[in-house]
Amino acid sequence: MSSSNLATETTSLLSNNQPKDVSSDKPKISAWKTLPAIWVGSFLSALDMTVVASLYPVIGSEFDSLNYSSFIATSYLITNTAFQPLYGRLSDIFGRRTMLLFANTVFMLGTVWCGFARSLGELCLARAFAGIGGGGLTTLSSICGSDIVSLRERGTWQGFANIVFGIGGSLGGPFGGFVNARWGWRSAFLLQVPLCLGSIALVSWRVRLPTKDDGVSSKQKLARIDYLGSFLLVSAVTTMVTLFTFGGDRFAWMSPVSLALTALFGFLTVMFYIVERDYAREPIAPMKVLRERTPLCAYIGNFTNALCSFAVMYEVPLFFEAVLFQNSEEAGARMFPMVLSIPVGSLSAGLYMKRTGTYRGAVIFGFTAMLCTLFTFMFLFRRGQGVSLKYIGVALGMAGLSYGTSLTSTLISIISALPIEYQAISTGVSYLFRATGSVVGISMGQTALQATLTSSLHRSLEDIPDKESLIDAIRRSVTVVPTLPKHIQKIVVHSYVQAFIASFALIAVFGLIGFLSSLFIRQHVLYSTVDRR
CA 335, CA 316: separation in Å to the nearest integer? Predict the structure, then answer.
């Protein structure tokens, strides 16, 4: 896009939909003193996500509901998804520090509740409550980084943030498996509480980002919130996740229930679009921002890459347990290559952008690598129990490297393509697409896996007495498989292998969409000053 066109777009955006609370005139703030205090929350968010990734088969099996265990993750991601774009606008209204304290407090209370949950349903409710706070921990970290770091340096700082995130993610699986093996899965949640308290203390002490609306009353600030748009967004996301969680498993994709949910999702999405476009005074997702080519393509890429990455993150541990008969601690430790390579990819992309002043090459590399990695997993799964763990480790490393590279490069492409006043809002929308992709990736991957597994088991176990009870037990608890007689065990493992291949074939379609979208992302100027002058 030419500079004259960009100027015209910028003028149009500002005149029609300019946020009232921006941070372009604030005094210089030390990034080294402020951002590490915020990153503690990001660390917690990453730790919590991978703790659940390694424990959900154990928790689902304990509650005799393994086939519903994806809800442990999706219930968190529903609210996490719905509230992430809200934090962009709300932090413009109430201030970054206020929303950081809110996010940390809600996350801590939800984590405590998870530790005392008495059923899978209650645990999912607790995860959903924690997700309201978790949605702000990562989003606000990125928003605050853009407030005080220039575009040219932004990728490097995002790389540092993702190192912290990667450390949290790398510790989550082993931590969850270690704690579960000794004190049970509940302790994996309760032991996070001291870190939550430490995060709240650091934000209170270190974060001092000024706002322009310090003299505005709370009533006036509350009046600026887009309540209807927020409600429609939450409703649409909930409907979508319900469809992808149960569709093809509890009811057929073409059943009346699936069609009704699809229609409801479509209606809510259209209503959200109309409200945001025509009625919201301060929309949480301005339509003019979504129509710009580079952000739109980057948002699509955010969705597909998160979908692919989270499908890998949640399904590969299940492969370790169901096919290779490893316990949760071993499965969690095997995920190290992925969670460690995410920050490596992110920081490498940041350094590349700082040195060259461009991001497009990093964007295309990230999506190309992800697509190749998905095909690699499909090839490796065909080996079944004879697969080399070394090669799986390499594939996991490539998945993490591609995801980390894409995370940083697409974020910078979005921020650089829009006026500075839209940094917080566009970042929130970016996290919305990432989180939506995460929800769909986990739910769709599990749905495809369970549907294929059930179908394969019905065909392969025709001559087994009490076939239905056996299939139900296999779908409910992964720990049943190693205890089966050898001839039945072989059949079940083969069915699981076929299910993993089918699931990853579907995921690869979205990897291809992400790759194609990356080709349409344009290069914009990466300024060396915060105010882009």
Answer: 8
**Angle, in degrees to the nearest 10, between helices 423-460 and 486-518:** 150
Burial tier of 44 (Cβ tally within 10 Å: 0-12, 13-18, 19+): buried
What digits encode the pLDDT tens for the residues 217-235?
A: 777 778 878 889 888 987 8
Distance (Å, whole) CA 248 – CA 244: 8
pLDDT one-digit tens code per residue, 415-460? 999 888 888 888 888 888 887 888 788 878 888 888 888 888 888 8
Q: How far, in Å, are 133, 154, 192, 227 from residue 103 at the CA level?
A: 4, 23, 15, 18
The domain locations on the chain are 30-207+282-518, 226-281
Phi-psi region of 425 (alpha: psi -120 to 50; beta: other; left: phi over 0): alpha
State whether the Cα torsion 312-314-319-321 is positive or negative: positive
d(CA 141, CA 425): 13
Structure tokens at 51: 């703790």
Rounded CA-CA distance 128/316 in Å is 24
Per DSSP, the chain holds a count of helices (H) and strands (E) of 20, 0
* Distance (Å, whole) CA 162 – CA 309: 15
Which amino acid appears at position 111 of this protein?
T
Q: What is the pTM of this model?
A: 0.80
CB 180 within 8 A of CB 330: no
Q: How far is CA 68 from CA 209, 443, 446, 485, in A?
A: 43, 10, 10, 26
Does domain 30-207+282-518 sit in CATH 1.20.1250.20?
A: yes
Burial class (CB in 10 A: 0-12, 13-18, 19+), 256: exposed
On the CB side of 108, CA atoms within 13 Å amount to 17
**For residue 98, what are the contacts with CB-CB under 8 A and spacing of at least 6?**
91
Q: Identify the three-state secondary structure at position 247.
A: strand
